[in-house]
Design brief:
Layout (H helix, E strand, L loop, with lengths): L4 E4 L4 H14 L4 E5 L12 E3 L5 H11 L3 E4 L5 H6 L1 H22 L3 E3 L2 E2 L23 H20 L3 E2 L1 E3 L1 E3 L12 H11 L3 E3 L7 E5 H13 L11 E2 L3 E3 L1 H11 L5 E3 L3 H7 L8 H7 L7 H15 L5
Parallel strand pairs: 1-2, 1-4, 2-3, 4-5, 5-7, 6-8, 8-12, 9-11, 10-14
Antiparallel strand pairs: 11-13
């Protein structure tokens, strides 16, 4: 069967890179990028549709038009923005997922991918090597929506046999897009300031340890999960996935090894409290055992690759 893949929320941090990789694998015409807004230049090599994830009729139109048999549903409002507009975030994050799951049931979609997050954990969660199965008491609307979403994904798998797959992403860092309103966005922002030769004012404390992942690993891991045999996917809520953990001061020191003149100061805001409710490190042994997950980038490798690519493409104002 030819894979016909719809990516909802394709212009976000993950989607913008995931679409490129999916098109390299399955062909540009077989991967339909979609978002609520029109891109200026992205995805000109294949189909791009305007889709509001809160409009199920529009999703169905695109599914029927392109004979879609896989959906990657990435549209969401992230942690920091969600705290500013909690009801809007809940509605977008939850209703859009339910729209996709119901459409997958009615249209017999072969596979659905939906991203969860370490935000589904909370103050009661063990902070070191957070287990796959543990206390989950999120205290942000983003985290609450991710925990609820995990339960809905597993429900649709158990009740209706929908092949739903998911990863609990840590903070993601990449050079191709600007930050999108998350608590870990400092790990993207900081590189743009460094390349411009500007001081970076960090909104987290210097010792705020958080799990992180380079975007190349996140994209590869997502596709590997979706390509794994169904029998190997034993967790249908969401898999823990990890690569590295670091603090703002540690990433600053890694940058200084490449750019010795770089400077940073710290002015923690409300995002520090969010960071304090999340784990320091993640146990992702289930993903490694079940379908062979393995990361490739550590802090040093990520720093060198980010700076090298931003030197070529040029930093942007954030």
């Amino acid at each position: 069967m030819t894979e016909r893949i719809l990516v909802i929320g394709a212009l976000g941090q993950l989607g913008s890179e995931l679409v490129v990789s999916l098109r390299d694998i399955f062909g540009s015409d077989n991967v339909i990028a979609s978002d609520v807004r029109t891109p200026e230049s992205s995805f000109s090599d294949g189909p791009m549709e305007i889709v509001d994830a809160l409009n199920p009729e529009r999703i169905v139109q695109v599914v029927d038009q392109y004979k879609v048999n896989q959906i990657y549903h990435l549209a969401a409002m992230l942690s920091a923005k969600g705290e500013a507009k909690p009801m809007l975030a809940w509605n977008l994050n939850m209703q859009s997922l339910l729209n996709v799951l119901q459409i997958a049931k009615e249209k017999q979609i072969q596979k659905v991918y939906w991203p969860s997050s370490i935000a589904c954990f909370g103050p009661g969660t063990p902070v070191e090597n957070t287990p796959q199965h543990t206390i989950m008491d999120p205290n942000t609307v983003y985290g609450i929506s991710k925990l609820a979403g995990e339960r809905w994904c597993e429900y649709y798998f158990n009740k209706y046999g929908i092949d739903v797959r998911s990863l609990r992403y840590p903070g993601l860092a990449g050079y191709k897009t600007l930050p999108g309103g998350g608590t870990t966005d400092y790990a993207v922002d900081i590189f743009h300031y460094a390349i411009r030769g500007e001081n970076y004012e960090c909104f987290l404390q210097p010792d705020a340890m958080l799990p992180m992942m380079y975007m190349d690993d996140a994209v590869r891991g997502t596709i590997e999960l979706m390509q794994a045999p169904a029998a190997s996917v034993k967790i249908r809520s969401s898999y823990n996935i990890a690569a590295m953990s670091f603090t703002p001061s540690q990433i600053a020191e890694a940058i200084k090894l490449e750019l010795p003149a770089f400077t940073i100061n710290y002015k923690p805001d409300f995002r520090q409290k969010i960071a304090e409710s999340w784990p320091d490190s993640i146990d992702d042994s289930a993903a490694r055992d079940d379908w062979g997950w393995d990361h490739r980038f550590d802090l040093e490798a990520m720093t060198k690759d980010m700076l090298a690519n931003l030197s070529i493409t040029g930093p942007q104002n954030t």
